[in-house]
Design a protein that fits this description.
Structural class: alpha/beta
Number of strands: 12
Largest sheet: 7 strands, mixed
Helix content: 25-40%
Radius of gyration: 20 Å
Number of helices: 12
């Protein structure tokens, strides 16, 4: 069951990007409130009882084969998040529910250890997270991501972290220990350097300044760190690409990549509603440019197209990005991580 949202274009929920809960595509029952919805929505953390933790990836669009997601849902609340529709599989909505109903996999470290020490396990770079952010606000108190990193550091298993949170710098000790074996890299995602745009679009993520500070801290500790200009929002943030790359390079980033906004499923309506509330004068321009990138649609699920779009405008975005990337000495991607130091418990003693 999902609850409808306010139809007032001026309505907002404090500290949230979505203004309500659109209908879950899998639910038959939908309730529309007669009274105005509350302007605050508390976060509820629920226990996720999954009995496996490592996911396999078959997409050629991402540079990893296995990933780990300590949380479902994400309190950062990025209005454009492609993962929002995954909450519908859990009986929730892709709207406020995604931002406020967070499922925590408290057994993730134990499940990870079991997976990595199995006889059948072959080490390869593990991505954290790939769907929702491993360093969203609840991580500060639960520490599930840190405990997973402790397992990875003990086994010297390679990991690549993607986040919008400065909290990643808390774990510089573990990431640094892995980096000493060429087994860790981090990418900080920066969508805009404008603090107001970022606050409205990514309400509970770290500010752009704090993300740049985290890049500096990681680089100083010897952890390979890069910047993801992701997602680029045509007509709203695309002009910031050169400035973001310059700021990241000055902070210590060594590589850079980008993706262009895509709006799968319920995300289209949520993002369009957000534009109407926060950038009404740019709404038509942004949505029109998004459709130009994907043959009239706002999402194209085909491999090779979904991350960047296609056509003349997509080529212009890519050209500007790569020109700025080269200007600031940033590599296309981080160096390949190594599995050479990986060790399972007891393996060293068996050598003797």
């Amino acid at each position: 069951m999902t609850m409808g949202s306010s139809h007032d274009p001026a309505f907002t929920v404090r500290g949230r990007a979505a203004a309500g809960n659109p209908k879950n595509r899998f639910e038959r029952l939908d309730v529309e409130l007669e009274a105005p919805p509350p302007d605050r929505e508390a976060t509820l953390v629920l226990r996720d009882t999954s009995r496996s933790i490592v996911s396999r990836n078959q997409s050629p669009d991402v540079p990893f084969d296995v990933s780990l997601n300590p949380y479902r849902g994400c309190e950062h609340g990025c209005i454009y998040c492609y993962a929002r529709p995954t909450h519908e599989y859990l009986g929730f909505s892709a709207g406020l529910d995604f931002e406020t109903r967070i499922l925590a996999k408290e057994d993730a470290p134990e499940l990870l250890r079991r997976a990595l020490t199995a006889k059948s396990w072959t080490p390869s770079t593990l991505a954290m997270s790939g769907v929702t952010d491993p360093y969203q606000p609840v991580e500060a108190s639960l520490g599930i991501t840190r405990r997973c990193l402790e397992v990875l550091a003990e086994l010297r298993h390679p990991v690549g972290v993607i986040t919008k949170s400065a909290l990643v710098a808390r774990d510089v000790d573990l990431l640094g220990a892995l980096a000493a074996h060429d087994a860790a890299s981090v990418a900080l995602s920066i969508t805009s350097l404008d603090p107001e745009v970022a606050r409205r679009m990514e309400p509970r993520a770290a500010s752009p300044r704090r993300r740049l500070e985290a890049i500096g801290m990681l680089a100083e500790a010897g952890v390979p760190v890069g910047v993801m200009v992701a997602p680029i929002v045509p007509g709203l943030t695309d002009h910031e690409m050169p400035a973001i790359l310059e700021a990241a390079a000055e902070a210590g980033a060594s590589f850079a990549a980008f993706t262009v906004l895509r709006l799968p499923g319920a995300v289209e309506g949520l993002f369009d509603d957000w534009l109407e509330r926060h950038h009404p004068a740019r709404r038509q321009k942004v949505m029109s440019r998004l459709r130009t990138l994907r043959g009239g649609a706002v999402h194209d699920a085909r491999f090779g197209h979904r991350m960047h779009g296609w056509g003349v405008f997509a080529d212009q975005i890519a050209g500007l990005f790569h020109a700025a990337r080269r200007k600031h000495g940033l590599a296309r991607r981080g160096a390949a991580l190594s599995t050479a130091a990986f060790r399972k418990p007891g393996e060293q003693t068996r050598l003797f």
